[in-house]
Fold each of these.
Amino acid sequence: MAYKTRLLATALIAVSSAFPALADDDKIIVGFATAESGFMEAYDKPAQDAAMIRIDEINAAGGLLGKQIEVIKADTKTDRAEGAKAGLTVIDGGADLVVVSCDYDFGSPAALAAEDAGKISFFLCAESVKAGIQGVGPHSFSASVLAAVQGATMAEWAYNKKGARNFYRLLDTWTEYNKGICDGFDWMLPKLKDAKLVGQDTFKNEDASIAAQISRIKALPQEPDAIMLCTMMPGAVSAVKQIRAAGINAPILNGSSMDGSYWLSAVPDLTNFYVPVQGSIYGDDPNPDVSKFNAAYKAKTGSDPSSQYAYPGYVMIDVWAKAVERAGTTDADAVVAELEKMKNEPTIFGPRTFSAELHHQNTTKYEIIEVKDGKPGVVDSWTISEPVPLEALLK
Amino acid sequence: MLQIVFDALTLGSLYALGALGIALIFGVMRLVNFAHGDVIAFCVFALLWPSVDAVAIVFAGNLPWYLLIPFVVLVGAGLSVLCEIVVFRRFRDASPATMMIASFALGFVIRYFLLMLFTSRPKSISLLPALSQPVEIFGARLPLLQLITIVTTLLVLAGLTIFLRRTRFGLEMRAAAENFAMARMLGVRANRVIMLAFALSGALAGAIALIFGSQTGTADIQMGAAIMLMAFIATVIGGLGSLGGAVLAGFLLGAASVVMQVVLPVDARPFRDAFVYGAVILVLLFRPQGLLVARGTKERV
Amino acid sequence: MSLLDVSDIVIRYGRLTAVRGVSFSLNEGDILFITGPNGAGKSSLLRAIAGVTPIVGGSISLDGKSLAGLAPEDIARLGLSMVPEGRHVFGSLSVEENLLVGTGMHVGKNGWRARVASDLEAVYDTFPILRERRNGQAGLLSGGQQQMLVIGRALMTNPRLIAIDEPSLGLAPNITDQVYERLMALRAQRGLTLLIVEQSSTRAVMTGGRMVLMRGGQIVLEGDAREVGTGDQIQAAYFGYEDH
Amino acid sequence: MSNATTVDTHALDSDKIAVRQPSRFSLAGRTIWTPLLLSLLLVAIAVITFMIGSRPFNQTVIDVFVRVILVVGLYVFIGNSGVMSFGHIAFTCLGAYAAAWLTINPAMKKISLPGLPEWLLATKLPYWQAAVLASLFAGVMALIFGRVLMRLSGIAASIATFAVLAMINAIYSNWESVTGATSSVVGIPIVRTIWPYMIAAVVAVFIAWAHAISRSGLALRAARDEPTAAAASGVDIPRERLVAFAVSGAIMGLGGALMAHSVGVVTPDTFYLGLTFTTLSMLVVGGMGSLSGGVIGVVLLSALIQALRWLEAGVPIGDSTFAIPKGLQEIALGIIMIVILALRPTGLMGNREVTLFRKKTK
């Protein structure tokens, strides 16, 4: 009877793939409450594939604490209410680690459900400071780097390496991520001697045309030395294309979300365009392990990563597994304590630090990708001179 | 100053073409077609080969322009007519609310169909790259595309006007838009006129797809939605059933948006849309029937 | 064989029955008035004949061909032109454009261009005011002019039968006289068959022809207009003094 | 006969007879079965869910109850007035944020929403008190907007309501210090038991019913079916519409507050076109002319969605699993909606209400 009821319940809730496994001492369960459909799928899938690579590696090497890692999944359908359900589903399935969607807004309902149940949650690649203690609770982490670090990195690098002094700031008010990049830029700019903001404007990602914003840049007495463009796909491509079509050739600085060559065909022969990345997908990363990972990724999915956003998934399982190993248990509080002890913990994709105040990266080493004549490649690497302080992040 | 005029005209052109596509169908069957935005998106995706990879596999997009343009326009017209035959024909006698929800459901189907074939990741395409060059005109430096957008829109408007004023089809459509039942009693074939309206509307969606696609360089399943909304509003404040009103209101909305972007201080600029929509409410309060009222149009919503 | 045969038709709106079992027939060149008080079902009857309102019982045939299931435009193409109540000119179209809307059915036939041009001339000859205003907006015409326009427009389809709903509604008596005068002249010239709905029988009596009187969705009186259209009998029938 | 076209199914329905003043009490007695039966349905769903005891399913049903509230809210205005509104989700947004303001821990509020007035920053209420206040706030805002908008009718009114939604969305998406702009507002206490949602849904159903049989509701429906006659007999249409607008705004606000507590985060884009169309579709598919239509539309469409998800996830048939491809669920949902509307243009329920005595309704 109990079995029947459970079967009925399972049928009704439509758990994807796995039937809820009973709490089983022989294995450790990682639950993915991520988007398998809807628009977040495009962002969650690569990171999740990367996470699976690390899980397979661990299992092949004998498992974690001598147990195999098993994976269960529930689809959030890129919907917040569904996200909460997906979170509850994997928790009911016995997940020791709840992995949630890449974006804070879409991942938080599941993360809050995990926090409620006293489980560790990890955002696949969210870059808002809220993806962690500040927006979920003490058991929540993000595997990526704060958006503000990206803006700050680009500002400082362009100042030092490109001699940029006159900056222009163009913000797409669509998401917190975009604002985060510009926040980091705003924090860094006053620290750069002689650097100044010659103008700023906003637009909306879905704007059919940003002609008015571009006219404002062109009305400046002289073209700025660099344009800090805080935006993301799909509007970003349109913005870059329109800026170049209007004959503005100043360097354009961006966040990591513009990494990838898949969109470059839209702006033929794009030049003077820069993005910070955690690792290069173009096969030219100074760290050979990155290229090795790329090969493993290709073997698993059939293609190279399309952007750097696959990498945090790998990092996530990597640091979590290390913490579990050190704690000797999957108990949430013990693992959190081990994670918070990590200071510049080396990973393939740069060092990671967690503390009792911040479960996110407020500084890291970034590779700088330059797009030149339509070809992207690593040109430099940069670490900001000081971490972005919590006050600047919470402003 | 001249720059602002051009910017306003560029944005207004897109809205005007969109509004026309909605007004044409509204005129003949009192249907507010919420699927219009998805038809626009479909036209852009028709250039790509279905694939779930991040990199777009360009298919028809590589055609030379003299084939590309008719291709996209025909795809739009074809899909639109298909919608009419398969779906809307069954809703001739339904209430406007029912038709509206049906059109929304249809748009939903088209959107998720695209999503299944192409995933949700926006795809980049280089459409008519030659147009991304700047040109000098009256001392203002403009992207060639901006100029072409405006000229195209004016040509489309002129062409449509001639079509409606000088041809028998046009005459029947105008009569049907004004009083559909009466036109039928005079032997005007309902199905043909409605199909023609859908074909024209779809062709306009194709035109928007081309302009928008070459402007943004992106194919995104959501891309039609923003234009569709503005176009819908333009259709209403222009005076439902009035094609001229729809075009006028489309340009006005474009102008309002650009002017607000220019005059508002930087802190208030994110609130631009709130001001634009506030203006829409004001216009509606003072001219509830729209700017240009089509005589004899009976409201049935 | 008669041109129009209406046999035992029933029309319902929801649970409300508007016409219950009406039959009549009309020969080529005939003139028939349908009269009766408001709500008698006259307009419904006319709309059913034109294919606008569906019938739930009975049959209608034109020239021996059943009209069941035909769309209004198909019926118009068979030669039945309907002039509904309230005139319905296409206000934003010009007068001439209004006249041309109904000529689509001739397109492609042998020599149709010349035919349309001569039809147009004929209408202008019948209603000279329309020629004067040919390029003006139809919505700006006076009521009488609009009535002439819709009749002219109906003629442009080259119909065998014209069905007119209340041609005198809202018109001054002398204008109505003019309209009727033209209609009678057309009937004489072209052998046109006329089906006219009017509330009162006055016109029918003045003009002559056959007349039926409807009340409560049924025909309560029929005969030659000049015979039955006057006197106590029609009074009683009109106001329903006697029970049927 | 001249208005034969407008003599349609509504011509003689019970509403009109009611307007001719029967006793209010007998009307209530005659129609009370509708809210009772609908509530019974909701209670039954809640009890079954409780007995199954699955947390994800519990969450699913909570969602259904929230939607019931929203769709009932829509019905109060759209159903009774016949005016399509694309803007009601604006009041859901107002309600959700108001609930957030009232329930978030003051310490957290000071950091994330520093622009709130001092007294609000210091307030922390239990969720049910907050929900009542949020609902009142949304109702008052609806009253204010309604005073301006209700002068309009037809599609102009529809667009104006949409403009209100777009305005509120633009403001809430950018007012950094008060709404947190586009970022999620967090720290809203999450309520995961099903009973408060069920109670709120039942309350919404009864409010809608009480409004429908009130003098104002009856007059409004008379005006919907025969505007000329109603205006001639002294019905002040804008005023009756305003009453319905405010009542429905308050119900939408209640729904918004509960929505906030069901997920624990609010963002402005939750309360925009997606939710607008989902709820409108449920109302129209159910039958926008009746309260039962709204409730049954939500329950049936939600069940359909769940069934399709279940198929998408795979159903074991014998030894093999049958599953429809990913993404097909939405396509199927759209097609099914179109088919339902094509077959039943006035929705599943048409203009009828569920009741025990079939004679009393048609």
Amino acid sequence: MNELYVSFHLLDRQIVDRDGLEVGKVDEVELGIDDRGAPYLAALLVGPQAFGPRISGWLGRLLTGLARRLRTDRSGPLRIPYDLVRQVDSAVELSVRRDLLREPELESWLREHLIGRIPGSAE
Amino acid sequence: MKKFLAFTLGILTAIGGFVDIGDLVASSLSGARFGLALAWVLVLGVIGICAYAEMAGRVVAITKRPVFDLVRERLGPRVALVNLVASYLVTLLTLAAELGGVALAIELVTSVSYLLWVPVVGFVLWVALWRVKFETLERIFGLLGLVLVVFVVALFRLPGHGPDLWHQALSPVPTPGENWNTYWYFAVSLFASALTPYEVFFFSSGGVEENWGPRQLPEMRVNVFIGFPLGGGLALALMAVSAEVFHPLDAQVTSLGQVALPAALALGRLGLAVAILGFFAATFGAAMETGLSAAYVVAQFFGWPWGKRLQPRRAARFHTVLLVSVLLGIVALMTTIDPIQLTEYMLVFSAVVLPLTYLPILVVANDRGYLGDHVNGRLANAVGVIFLVVIVAAAAAAIPLMIVTGAGG
Amino acid sequence: MSDLVTADLIGKVAYHRSGEYLGRVADVVVAPDPEGTWRVTHLVVSHPPWGRLLGYERDEETGPWLLVMLARRMLRRNTRRVRWREVRIGEDDRHA
Amino acid sequence: MWLGLAYCTGPVDAHGYRKTAVQSAQAALNAVRTGALAADAQLLDPYASTLLGDQLGAVAAAQEQLLAEPPPDSGTRNVRDQLLPLLNGSAVQLGDLAYAMSTGDLAAVRAHQEQLRRLGDQLDDFVERYR
């Protein structure tokens, strides 16, 4: 493919790691500006902090508020440099494994405090 | 054996669409009130769900993207979020109703009030969804639900009015004493129930759980073209026995116990016991389907790791949504809301959001960039477009009909 | 100039350098340069914007006929690609 | 049901009252027909008691629905006076049928079944007449 429509091909698409495991959605795309002032595709942003602002109105506020309360907000969205993208088709595939990326705090928190404490969670 | 069991995902999915707690009663009730004059809606529903489940299954086999993934991608975040909220609520309240249905089935063999069974059923459901493998659940409840075939047997054992039934089926108009508004209200809710959105959520996610690829396309089609017609056939049998037993007496069916009565009349205690076992399996199967679907849609909207193929600790957010949904379902029922009424209202509301789920499936099934040579053929597109129009019409008519008829009064 | 996110562009009003009103930004087109960096080359502007176009802005969507017709008509009439260098993004909503 | 409740509040006119009466009669009709059918079938005991319990509950609800509103004129008073004995009879017969079935008294089961059929026909006529 020699060109991409950012909104169509990237935004809201599923991101999977090199083994096909879910990483998140492309909640927002970051464009960098180089020395000459020309914009380029810099990174994919994942997380409710990136997603919330795209939804205007009460639904967006609800979502952002919920995310804040659910302590997913502390270190900002997950930023995946575009260099790590291997391929874009029905999903955005990364060239790395999920473990190398920062895990969303909500996932770790729920595992530690709820799911991981229920017998049989590792089976 | 593997080949023989290859269609259980389709069966289990179809159970949620055709013989869950709401449908068990709704099919019998429409048989009692209209004879077989609404049988065509079931036929139409089977064709529609087959067409769309096949598309959704094909998309999953080729791209591994389940339906709610496509919903957000094609409709954009805002519309998809509205669809998410609506679909989640419909699915959650249906889950609550199914828990009630399982409890009602148990009440029929214990005469202990269903409300006391609800927490027990909820707990057992959650344990099953936590511990048992997806394929195992699918096989047990898909196959066990098939014992509802007892109503087909009952139909042949009942003193025959076969010609009457044919006559009713071939004259699709309100029977004497009924009016067109009520007729169409029943038609819309039977149709919406045949195409409830959680069926495609569950079926497509089930395809991912079972790791379908292009080589499983034939298996997927077997699931669709055996599973859904079987489910629809069971609903038709329920409608027919009720048309035979209750319709001539001008009596309506409002409780699960009455739904089983024709089986007892035709086949005695054994028939009754099998019918109740079938109710149990079908409602429990539908509870699994709706419980998982509630968690699937949320996880797929946000892109979280999901599914029973992962260890629960590797999908903590998914399993949290699942746990919370089951708890909310239990709480909803403990308000003593009538589970049967609940599903019927949910059907009407789900009719309203149906187009937001089915449009993206149709669009993606035509996307060569995704499916290559597996895009829709002419037939699939013709059926898809016709049904999209019908779905939109049903969506538009659902609430006005509910209001003018006082919900089928 | 600091970094952008697409929300800073999509949905915003676009003008031609010459001052001509173009519409609202519907999508951002990127293509790789010789070093492999994906650079913004064009904007897709539409007038008035029609949310997401279900993917019909590409050629890979083949049917069904009814939807293709609807989408193509809407696209032909209302959207076009403009080179990035020729566009100025405005904030005001006069043309909403 | 929720909408049904909304309809039932507030003072009603004769038409509304007749509509309510027909609904009550139809609910009782469903129950007595079910009872009469059940008397013919071989049933499991817990099922029979749950089924008939549900039918009794339905008749009780129908009575309550009918009596919750005052009839607005003499015509509707007449409607009520026709229906009420049928509802009462239905409740009595269903209750007695449940008892007879639980004790296995076949003669009594047949007798109550006959009464339920008769009540069913009368309720059916009532529904036909006032619908």
Amino acid sequence: MTATLLFVQTLNGLQFGLILFLIAAGLTLVFGVMDFINLAHGVQYMVGAYLVAAFSVWTGSFGWALLLALPSALGFGLLLEVLVFRHLYDRDHLDQVLATFGVILFLNQAVKFVWGAAPLSVPVPDLLSGSVEIASGLLYPVYRLAIIAAGLIVAALLYVLVNHTRIGMLVRAGASNAAMVSALGVNIQRLFMIVFGFGAMLAGFAGAMVAPILSVEPGMGDNILILAFVVIVIGGIGSIRGAFLAALLIGLVDTVGRSFAPNLLRLFLDPAAASQTGRAIAPMLIYIFMAAVLFFRPSGLFPVKR
Amino acid sequence: MAEPLLELRNLRKAYGALVVTDDVSLAVQPGELHAIIGPNGAGKTTLIHQISGTLRSDSGSVLFAGQDVTSLSMPQRVGRGLARSFQITSILPGFSALENVALAVQARSGSSFRFFGNASQEKALNQPAMDCLQQAGLGARAHIPSGLLSHGEKRQLELAIGLATEPKLLLLDEPLAGTGHDESQRVVETLRRLKGRLTIVLIEHDMEAVFSLADRVSVLVYGRVIATDTPGRIRANPEVRAAYLGEEEMV
Amino acid sequence: MTELADTASAPAPSLSTRFEVVPIVLFAAFAAAPLFATYSGAEGYVLSLLTRVMIFGIAAMALDLILGYGALVSFGHAAFLGIGGYAVGILATHGIEDALIQIPVALVASALFALVTGAISLRTKGVYFIMITLAFGQMLYFLATSLAAYGGDDGMTLSSRSLVAGSRILKSDFAFYWMCLICLLGAYAFSRSVVASRFGRVLRGTRENAIRMEAIGFQPFRFQLAAYVISGMMAGLAGCLLANQAEFVSPAFMTWQRSGELIFMVVLGGLGSLHGAIIGAAAFLLLEEFLPEILHGVSFFLAEETRAHLAENWKMVFGPLLILIVLFVRGGIMGLLRRPRHG
Amino acid sequence: MNVTIKTLGLAAAVTLAAAPAMAQEKLKVGLLLTLSGPSAVLGQQARDGFQLAVKDLGSKLGGRDVEVIVVDDELKPDVAVTKVKGLLERDKVDFVVGPIFSNVAVAVHKPIVDANTFYISTNAGPSNLAGKSCSPYFFATSYQNDQNHEVLGKVAQDRGYKKVYLLAPNYQAGKDALAGFKRHYKGEVVEESYVPLNTLDFQSELAKIASMQPDAIFTFMPGGMGVNLVKQYRAAGLADRIPFLSAFTVDESTLPAQQDAAIGMLGGSNWAPNLDNPQNKKFVAAYEAAYNSVPGSYSMHAYDAALLIDSALKSTGGKMDNKDAVRAAIKKADFKSLRGDFKFGSNGFPVQDFYLVKAAKRSDGKFQTEIVEKVFDDYTDAYAKECAATN
């Protein structure tokens, strides 16, 4: 395997990791600040993708569709908050899991009801279609670079927002001690709504960004939800910094591990056995990685002090 | 003087730059009621955590009954007769008062890896538990779910649980905290009854109670023991008076 | 100890010998069902459905033992269904078809898996525990999909149900039904005993306040681990039965969704009530089976096409139903049953 | 609560079981298909195809009124087993038609044939059902799973590709697919790459493909995976440089999402919407009018299954009681298949022609696969000789 290939795979891992981060950021905040397990976070990602698909048919432009999809995703998140989630904050985690699972069942079926079971398509915007040549014969799609850029920009914005604004201060304080924040006379209900809506919008944004490269279909949020949970648990619940690092690590472990695990194993095993073992191990890698992290750091990489 | 039951040698605990207990050395004699007092933030609760094994010490050692127990976990120390109560009431609220105590008895009598037989019907557990409840003055409330007990009763229950572990030494972390006047009287009476029958280390803010109960008093200030002596001499100690100045009135 | 501990509202089991209506009615219904099944004229179907209910009842009860009584939320419990199922399937392909060998092998394998993964998982708490058990469940799932010799992702069909001491008695749906009922009763009686025993009391105490338990001299880890192993073995037994019920084993037995469903069964039935777990399993499976028809039935006033549409999209009703149950029925179905008595 | 629900359930069971007494003449067909989850679209195609045929036949099969009972297997084999037992014993169906997925097919095979009920697969054709575990009650109107892959292997061999890159999801069907491809392809396989099931992103494999520069790639990526792969393959600029051979990856169920990205990509099939015969033209037009989408082979197989049942019952005079007679009538396959030539082999699988197909955009803006050339004529699957059943 050449160095260029390794480089390309690293880019791929980075891109996958950043998408995971967009989803995980909202999840970890909602979890950290409100102590609320939101299984329905994955369907908000799906809803983002469906919204952009619907709007791009309507407007004929990905840019406009994205602009419309973001506030819609925000509005949708707030709607869910008012209808369902608000009534669950003071419940125990299991109640939250059960009720938000109900939301998943409903929405997965609802998008099928509205848009049909067949996957939908969103064309890559013309401006960002095509590829750049990284090395001779190795092309890399521009749109993927755009995803990486967008992910990094959002991460930077989040960093500023969380570390250098009043609301960010409240969020951080809320993650380590929610009771204290409400004792300060902050309208905790409104803070929750803001965090929630913001998280939903980020997930929707991630869904919208991947719509042109992945198929938009019912249930697309379910597997990514599990990965997002893996990310926030590795990172330490409530920690944006942890989520960022963990998302990139998971992205890299999954992408790079998948393509290089068989090659590595070939050093110890004969090729047939290596490829067979590699195949068996590849999908387990991220779970092995998570179990290992939790074994040494039972509260994740960046535990938030409680 | 007899060999001390509990001996602390140079215990230290720090959180980063904040040193909470520093070079604490102390000897508790068998049978005495040894009180540890000190202003807020002096490190009293941390010290109890270190003695009981809830917290690991950074350095120093804890000797109990002549043996080094520094590296033992809390349950292991309990097994050797070093029991504790908690400053913030720590009971099993869903269990009846009797069951709270019976569990402690169970910990001391036979294996708990028994999967058959109704534990709540075991006379061998319930009888001693009832005795402990009576000693703590809670006999009449044995079958009330402990979460429904009054605050003072919960403190008494903590004492009963501590007793049921058949300790050689009982560490009591502010047993009077948050109790009303009558309730605190009842707890003090219970302590007075227990005194002499087992060794007690008492951390307490209520100076009246401390000075009426204690055989000896150690004063902890900023993580250091500045004096250990009889209640009378401690009261007269100028250093102690200085440390408490403005903090609260010495009795 | 876990974040769930302080809010989990599972009541201590009733330790009096009070006459208990719910479990008696429940088991009487299971015992009477075969008669009804014969009468219905679709006995194989009715028995098969109820057998499934009982098998998942065992699995849900196993989970309830650690979840309801130990506040340990295992999100990988379907792995044990898989271990039980694969023990039957793999042994059967090698000619060992007797349940008297298969079940002990399944129990030992489940116990070993629980011992190793439990010892690692119990280092963590709360949500971290949920996720690490999920991780182990997923590892086993992917391992099963890579077992090409045993059907890989497609799974494998059993040539017949297990033998019992060389006899083909389980070939009859009735015999198999009774065997499952006996297993369910046995598991229920054993779990009741465990919960009330010295061991169970320590486990329940640990759920309420682990620090207090340490302060009176218990090491919670050992009890939680033992409970995890017991629970895993019970779920492994359910896996053996499930393989025999479907006469089929596949990795689909141990998807994370299946683990989630087990949690829902427990919560739906009411946390910390063993027969509640069985009732939760029954409610979940019967809703899954009949909700389409119920919807079709109650919408008789609509056009046939709309009714078919409604029945096909039954999950759009099932989802909100779950939400409503959580919002308005505290303590699951058992909470609903208990309410009148309390007041 | 439990008791109430159970009684309700049992009551429903009793009522439904009693139903045949009132309408004895109705023929009952159970459709077992995946109708929920990401793969629901395949099940819907099959359901719509079958129901369209029933409608075209005047709501009668073989002269008898017909009741079609549709159940969702949820793609869970153990759930499917229970549902099938419901169809067999509660609804007392005469035929079970379906399913889409092989793991479901394998799981429900035993209960259906044990109940001496005819089982007609409209898609899944796992090798053991074609070979060792074949049964006189099992017929397929589709194909054996390997056959579409064999088409591409033959094409790769005939076109003289020297180096081929193989890509499949890491599960049994994926492994079978690559094995099927290699049955006729004898050139070099530069890499056999397996990705986890439900992989979303193939960028890492595409990078490898680009660096290895094979003469062609062959892949099996059903459903959403196929949509992703095709779009990403196109975006990576590989589509114009390295031929894309695939099976179950570019078809009418995925083309609405792949759209332009898939144009020109090659697949193997036993049929395509533009296959030139009158019955097919009528079918495609009627399907598009009724469901507003282009039918895929899933609906074609289901449509044919209905025609098959119709023809068999016509031959027995609508009677089901003599199973041997029904079987003999089915074996004759006396109907005009949408794919033209059709007959059954000894194992109950079709002996039929296979084509190389290509994704194309029609003048009305919709996408479909179109026939490029016939690759196999009257082709029998590789497992038929292992079948011992006297079918």
